[in-house]
Design goal:
Blueprint (H helix, E strand, L loop, with lengths): L1 E12 L9 E17 L4 E6 L2 E6 L10 H11 L5 E7 L9 H13 L4 H16 L6 H8 L4 E6 L5 E5 L4 E7 L11 H14 L17 H21 L3 H17 L6 H11 L4 E7 L6 E7 L3 H9 L4 E5 L6 E2 L1
Parallel strand pairs: 3-5
Antiparallel strand pairs: 1-2, 1-12, 2-5, 2-6, 3-4, 6-7, 8-10, 8-11, 9-10
Helix pairs in contact: 1-2, 1-3, 2-3, 2-4, 3-4, 6-7, 8-9
Amino acid sequence: MIRARAPGRVNLIGEHTDYNDGFVLPCAIDRFTVVVAEPRDDRAVHVESLGERDHFTLGEVERTGTWRDYVRGVVERLHLERGASLRIESDVPRGAGLSSSASLEVAVGRALSDIAGEELALLCQRAENDFVGVQSGIMDQFAVTLGRADHALLLDCRDLTYRHIPIPPGVAIVVCDSHVRRALADSGYNERRAECEAAAARLGLASLRDATPAQVAGLKRARHVVSENDRTLRAAAALESGDCVTFGELMDASHTSMRDDFEIVPPELDALAAATRAVDGCFGSRLTGGGFGGCTVSLVDDEAVDAVGGAARELGATVYVCHASDGAARQ
């Protein structure tokens, strides 16, 4: 029997930049998916998860159009010789923008394989892209796989180089779930990705990573991506130097860009970010995740956590006070 766990993740800044070969700054959080795997002598795979079950056979893996595809896609990509019985538990909120899907994928992959972290992350991304049909970038799987406690992960999504950025002591990462749900496969996520690819093609570029502010001045979607890359690099430098004020200002600017240029911030999320941002001791607040619903993330002085949480709860949000966690591992 093998037990593995993988965290969820929250993206501090750098939204919709990953599939544009840009920069992101997520961290793994202390909410986990746990998979217990028992090897079998046949080629059957049995899955029990949150009161639901799935059964399939290696070599005959078909799509279901449900959460089961995240497990099936990873198993299909691993090319296993023998089946397994999997028991899955998770306290990562589903549909909230905290990467419950990548957490599930990576936990399953780690329970069934000991391949290197970078390889596992790429395998899980391919499973999500090709089997599930969600055209996500690499950020989620990299953060879930390679996170480090008390650090954010600055990732260059073009060459996949990364480094861990220490999070200053005395601050908390407060995630507020609006309960406005969205399913990435059915939302505008794929549409936004297509719009970015079209903008790059229009400019004669391989990706928007290579665009300049002048080139995208009249292209709202592309303008967000180019400005967000700049904000992410400046935010990483600010965090590394312990400058939470500047970091928070960049979070706020990111939210405005997502709302006005990328148009993925529903009114409920805009109000939630504004309410938490207004509390003394909240350095900055922004929508996090693919958009169209989900959560805000705020960087908050420890002494202001209760007040920020209270402001969010008044709007019906569920509040998670998070700490940066280590990435996926067998236990």
